[in-house]
Design brief:
Chains A, B: It is found in: Cell projection, Axon; Cytoplasm. Two copies of one chain form a homodimer. Chain A is an alpha+beta fold. Chain A is built from 26 helices and 30 strands. The relative contact order of chain A is 0.12.
């Protein structure tokens, strides 16, 4: 159990709906590491070497022709894993059986908690037995990220705030590149409707979405100094301590283990009992702890000066799209399906954020809401992705203790592993995007939510997870949210968020409605008559029948509008029944939602691209693909000789003119040292002006970061070549084939 | 005084520092219009016709070779204005004289208020006398903006929230284009360091910047229902009402006028007196009003679960850059000057926001902080903008009652109208950017802050103002902020935010420092010894002398660290004096800050580009330049004939492949009607596939929005042509010269 905190503990945290569906979200413990220096555990063994960016092989990688190697095929390893797999399957079957027999919810919950625990033991074992791919030193990477200001804690000179980060020039440019790639990959390519909605959100909106009531974690407070702790974290840590105490009896140890396993399924009261039974105290001060309380994770504020309009910082961008559904549908000329998208910041007041960019209080999301007819979730472009191979960790495999499997998207839909074409189409596109921006495809899987993890409204939900030193981290959620959100907002506002479709043939329907007799209502209610008539016209058929009954039985009907009530008498109302032929049908569209946590993807990219030069452990760099590299090209004079200056200036201008971001490094230091500096900030290409550049025909050296290969190129061609390399129109192999190699050693210059 | 609310009342509101310097900011009344249908008043008469986008003439416009015509040259108009100009000058001279003679602040304030009032009367008169350029119907424009969902009130289905807006697909795309143009125009072109910092800001940071104490407006509350009113607005409106009452005596009318004029300079107590004297009540309810109170305009919240860490939503993005200064300087290898930039949202809890996008609670800013040596504010690229002509409304001209003047940037610096090259360089660049994204250069001026408007730390400050139907609206601020911000954060944190420069020759300086005697301090203070020694090492020379004195006189020195104090005795300390040769000098960099209010610029662009077809008053459109148009091209089949479908699909794909955003409109309706629809959403180019397109050689019609000109282009060339048009590499004139004209009438198709 050495890595018990490392693996698969951070999933389903970025996205609020997951938190909602998980109720008080106990499953989401923060992973912390006992040692900071350790090795990446890859569960995906592969015989592939990572090809250099820009090489043909790499291009292929972007095109997803990598033959995924089936993992866990080693019979020796499988022999060791067999009992663990069996234990999971046994429990999975038990859960299935309990469900079928309609067992009590509490029993089901306990069985699921036990299933999760067994799954975790199996996964730990899997990772433990997988041969280590490469050593990874997180401390070294973090040092580089900080030193070259990719990002750092916000307000560091004021002592910093946990869970908040500022992106420096390199991180900011990389993030901007990730977003602009996202924009062209999704919005432009799929002609989505992009919106940009308010962050400050009034309470009723988030009441309707469920966030006000259910977007909470349980916490306890230090009675004296007020420090807060997430309850599940606290209990887990305490019981681990008890277990590791030599004096603890075997019986007590077993009890502790049992509690940790079942913690996920426990409610507030059950957790309180454990808290008190073990007489837990505040970790550092040893003070008494308060009873558990729910802590809503939204930041609240007041809008306007009166202090009466309560608002929150949005916990997700999706609601902004849902509340604008009507306008968007109108903009799309009433046609479905269509997708809307939004890129923007969301906020969560985490109780105790840790793990760097993975759990933060302020983060950028990119969300897509694809609206479609619930009876038709096919996708017109599905054939374009049918062949794409993905690593799927289905709910079924999870229940059966099986490993994740590689299948094509088409097969997964045919086999009904993925619920529908649209969901599957987006999963393929998510993978393509992730790999394009630098996620290692060998460290990317889709994990399906098990029935019990899924929000009650969702039909199917898959998380794109990246393997990092924190374990498998959920980076993108892809869910079929059914009609939940639009229905909720319709219920709260009375505005019908629906679409219309032509019926195959006209339909005759019975209409029952209550009509106000204008004169009578007007006379009795004056100014308010208009509101009353409007309210009456909106009544559902069932309510109309109620009105009719009430008029008959009680001689009146009391209509409520907001906090006002109006007594209506038979002389004011007329109930009409008639038939109507309709050619269209109204329906509430369903929503398929891919939701990207940009910061988490970014973190995975950092880990997957952090490299150490084989000949020098101190030379670290990021092998970021050019498309997201913060700067595309460095421009270096060999020395500070004044003759180089005009060439350097002109070159920098030429590069800027063809949209290649670049940076001149004319500081002192050998050319090798300066290359190392540019490697650190992931600049993929470097141009050096030397004494030969001054002679006719003018030329310069172009160097590629990953291979450190160098060629000699005429000065008037070089900007164009770097542009083509940067935008994927040429590979480094092409360049090496076309131009003479430059042999001089970097360090000798 | 017909336009008394329209003109020049909305400036200096977007940017917090302005608000800070204006203290309780009384001058910034919200402009409201008596009638919604009215005419734009252009103070800049010009004989120029606005050339069509893409024409050669237009290209010139982007290059700023437009001969600005001196305004107000009509002798008849000048005759009428003469007494108004004289009145301003008289008062301006009086203010100057008061300053020179060191008059009391209250007298000076009153004189300045009177000066402002006279200036306003003059400006109203100027606008009134300027021949009207074109009729402008704001209601019509707002209808179009709303109907085609450029933007709309946030959470409209929940009743909406004032001062918050959601951008729909068209507004969002336009905003994204404005920002990406900004990014390449400033950040890429000037190699600025872009950062992306937290929105949630802990209190101490904003305490240091001055926002916690001074970023407030005065308001009063309805005693019964709690409704809030901005005090200056309330007083002004009340007095206007009193004035317009027929029963009011001439004497009282004069008094009212006098108060309105002086309102700007009044403090809380003076305003309270007026409030009570005139027995003002809440406008709608007629309830009693509370005493004036300061209302801080920042949204506050708590960070973390304890409720103890107070935070605010940032009111500007600039502070994020200042607190990261050290890291940025390091990133720039210690070299100055350099500029950092940030694009992001800021928040202000306005008391009663109105005027659409101009006064909002949540808005996007783009800010640049250019750090430089205070003794050298030259700019290396100044010669590139020296020739740029700008319309300057200098403080001097404002004091003298003169009109704004057209001068070149170079001349303005030579004549010391603009304080330094760097400030002037940015002003030229601001203008170039504004015109590039669609601001009408004839409705753009730079207004200098007068001495009394300027924050105490600023050396010079210019606002880029756009003329709109709300009057001149401040859209970009460009200020020399001196060393204020870095000094403030240094003071608050003890972290020295300074740069170093090489001295022309080494300097020998006297050093005096107090050194702790380790053993003695350690023995007395144990664990705290380290802190004490660190604190001692940081003492300023003056304090060291104090320590020495105190040890001598009192036999002890009491050192305070935070809330703790430590008594140090002579045996613990040694004061050392020696000489040191230094080769570098530390200094606090100065900051030149261009600060863009993106929403306001966007609003000005909408107004400046709103057009009505001369032959049909119902056909309205936006003549947005292609670079910011939400979509570049529409693709229209002539009818819903199935044969067109493959052509339409292929064309859309071809356009997307060359990065041309496009939209297929295959809805029913004549081609003319669909053109009108695409004109409404500002799509500059439209391609129509008709029956001739199906024949060899395949061709299609390309139409330009502003001129409605059409040409016939081979199908395989068309995507490239539209790309070149969209990215400014080809003009419509070029296209018309190269391809045959297409003569068919739009409406006949």
């Amino acid at each position: 159990m050495k890595f018990s905190f490392v693996v698969k503990t951070v999933a389903s945290v970025v996205f609020s709906r997951k938190l909602i569906c998980n109720h008080s979200c106990p499953g989401k413990s923060v992973p912390f590491l006992i040692t900071r220096k350790f090795q990446v555990l890859s569960s995906l063994r592969s015989h592939l070497e990572a090809p250099a960016w820009g090489s043909k092989k790499h291009k292929n990688k972007q095109k997803f022709k990598i033959p995924y190697i089936n993992i866990m095929a080693d019979p020796k390893i499988e022999e060791i894993l067999a009992p663990f797999r069996a234990a999971v399957k046994e429990q999975g079957d038990k859960v299935r059986q309990l469900k079928e027999s309609g067992a009590l919810e509490i029993d089901l919950k306990k069985a699921v908690a036990e299933l999760k625990a067994r799954k975790k033991i199996l996964e730990d074992k899997e990772l433990e037995l997988t041969p280590v791919e490469a050593s990874f030193d997180r401390a070294k990477m973090e040092d580089l990220l900080k030193r070259r200001f990719f990002f750092d804690q916000s307000f560091a000179i004021y002592g910093g705030i946990t869970g908040q980060f500022d992106f420096g020039p390199m991180g900011c440019a990389m993030k901007a590149n990730m977003l602009s790639t996202w924009r062209s990959f999704f919005i432009l390519e799929e002609q989505m409707l992009e919106v940009d909605c308010s962050i400050l959100t009034p309470e009723p909106v988030l009441k309707a979405s469920g966030h006000v009531d259910r977007f909470a974690d349980l916490m306890v407070k230090d009675d004296k100094n007020g420090e807060c702790f997430r309850l599940d974290h606290l209990i887990k840590a305490h019981l681990e301590k008890v277990k590791s105490d030599k004096k603890t009896t075997a019986e007590l140890k077993l009890e502790c283990e049992d509690i940790v396993i079942k913690l996920d399924g426990m409610n507030k009261e059950e957790m309180r009992t454990i808290l008190r039974k073990f007489e837990m105290k505040a970790p550092l001060t040893n003070n008494e702890l308060s009873d558990p309380m729910e802590f809503n994770l939204m930041f609240s504020t007041s809008i306007g000066p009166t202090g009466l309009v309560k608002g929150f910082l949005r916990p997700e961008t999706a609601q902004g799209i849902f509340v604008n559904f009507k306008r968007l549908l109108e903009f799309n000329q009433g046609k479905l399906p269509f997708a809307a998208a939004q890129i923007g910041n969301s906020f969560r007041n985490e109780i105790s954020p840790r793990s760097g960019l993975i759990r933060v209080r302020e983060f950028t999301m990119a969300e897509i809401e694809h609206f479609c007819d619930p009876s038709d979730k096919s996708h017109p472009k599905f054939d374009e992705v049918r062949h794409v191979q993905v690593l799927l960790y289905s709910a079924c495999n999870q229940m059966d203790g099986k490993a994740a499997e590689i299948v094509t998207i088409g097969q997964a839909v045919d086999d009904r592993i993925i619920a529908n074409e649209t969901l599957a189409y987006f999963m393929a596109r998510i993978q393509q995007y992730m790999v394009k921006v630098g996620v290692d495809p060998k460290k990317l899987r889709f994990r399906q939510h098990m029935n019990n993890e899924m929000a009650h409204y969702a039909c199917d939900c898959w998380d794109a997870e990246c393997l990092t030193s924190y374990g498998w981290v959920e980076c993108v959620g892809c869910a079929d949210r059914s009609a939940y959100d639009l229905s909720q907002h319709t219920k709260s506002t009375g505005v019908r968020l629906v679409a219309e479709k032509k019926l195959p043939e006209p339909k005759t329907i019975d209409v029952v409605e209550v009509v106000a007799i204008k004169g009578a209502v007007g006379k009795s209610f004056k100014k308010e008559a208009k509101d009353i008539m409007e309210a009456l016209s909106k009544l559902e058929p069932a309510t109309v029948v109620e009105v009719e009954e009430s008029l008959k039985t009680n001689g009146k009907y009391v209509l409520e509008i907001g906090t006002n009530s109006y007594t209506l008498t038979p002389d004011m109302l007329e109930v009409k029944r008639y038939q109507k032929t309709t050619y269209v049908e109204e329906y509430v569209p369903n929503v398929i939602e891919p939701s990207f946590g940009i910061g988490r993807i970014m973190y995975a990219i950092f880990e997957h691209n952090f490299k150490v030069r084989s000949d020098d452990g101190q030379r670290t760099y990021f092998s970021l693909p050019p498309v997201i590299a913060p700067l595309k090209c460095s421009v270096l004079p060999l020395s500070n000789n004044a003759d180089f200056v005009p060439y350097i200036r002109q070159l920098s201008r030429d590069l800027t003119a063809v949209d290649v971001s670049n940076r001149v490094d004319d500081s002192s230091g050998s050319i090798g040292r300066r290359y190392a500096r540019t490697d650190e900030i992931a600049i993929p290409f470097g141009i050096t002006i030397d004494f030969d550049s001054l002679k006719e025909p003018h030329s310069a050296t172009l160097r590629e970061r990953d291979s450190m290969g160098q060629v000699r190129i005429p000065l008037n061609e070089i900007a164009g070549v770097v542009r083509d390399l940067s935008y994927g129109k040429m590979t480094w192999t092409d360049v090496e084939a076309k131009y003479p190699k430059f042999e001089q050693q970097e360090t000798k210059s």
